[in-house]
Amino acid sequence: MKNGAIKRQARDERGTSGSKRSTTRGAHREPGAVRTASGHSRQRGPRDVKMAAMKQERWAPHVTVAAVVEREGRFLVVEEQTSEGLRINQPAGHLEPGETLVDAVVRETFEETAHRFVPQALIGAYMMHVDRPNGGATYLRFTFCGQPGTYSEAGSLDDGIVRTLWLTAEELRACRARHRTPLVMRSLDDYLAGRRFPLDFVHTHSVGPLNGR
Fold first, then answer.
1. Residues 44-72 pLDDT 10s
2. pLDDT, mean of residues 119-134
3. Least buried of 2, 92, 111, 124, by fewest C-beta within 10 Å?
């Protein structure tokens, strides 16, 4: 056999054996196993399932707004019905499509308290992770402070809102075990410490579609 033919035969044999090794490795991988960066296999765990779900559906935090409304040393809060019973919260809720953050906090305050709200400053942006049996959730909360406007006698409160209250900081601190979220007291403490950012600190820029990005 000539040298060229011998070399071709050797290449063919190497390629055949390589394919068999590759097939064998795949055949011995256990069902539900994933391959690590080091080349080893391990069983698929809860994190793998969670990551696969995140790839199918793009993850995003829940964007919410809240209002710290002070009048003569007292703060406007709501008592609301939750799955954990009655809880105290600032007027708060989710950002809705097409709204600015300021639009949202004005709307939520009126819907939950029947009080008009005039935002004057941003106290801060707060992120909170909540563990739940179904995987949990992340909230990004923008809290504003401002002055109470007119009260609407005809205004009806949102579903779940039992009543509105005007409480002092000391009264709120004393009932913190009943707060809907730790951010109620955290944002109030920031407000009392004088933390303020101008309303235009958060800029809203409207654009057209960006290919889904």
1. 677 766 666 555 568 889 999 999 999 99
2. 92
3. 2
> Does the residue 49 lie in any domain?
no
Q: CB under 8 Å to 188, separation ≥6 — which residues?
A: 68, 75, 90, 169, 172
Domain for residue 28, yes or no?
no
Where in the sequence is the domain holding 80, given as residue range(s)?
62-193
The closest alpha carbon to 184, from 107, 128, 129, belongs to 128
More confident residue, 28 or 96: 96
Residues 6+ apart with CB under 8 A from 169: 75, 188, 192
pTM of the model: 0.70
Residue 20: pLDDT band by 50, 70, 90 thresholds?
very low
The answer to which of 36-40, 105-109, 197-201 has the lowest mean pLDDT is 36-40
* Integer Cα distance of 105 and 119 in angstroms: 8
For residue 199, the 8-state DSSP code is: G
Neighbours of 197 (CB within 10 A): 13
Based on the structure, what is the number of domains in the chain? 1
Residue 2 covered by a domain: no
Rg of the chain over CA atoms, in angstroms? 29
Confirm whether 144 is domain-assigned: yes
- Predicted local distance difference test score (pLDDT) of residue 56: 58
CATH of the domain at 80: 3.90.79.10
Residue 82, classed as helix, strand or coil, is strand
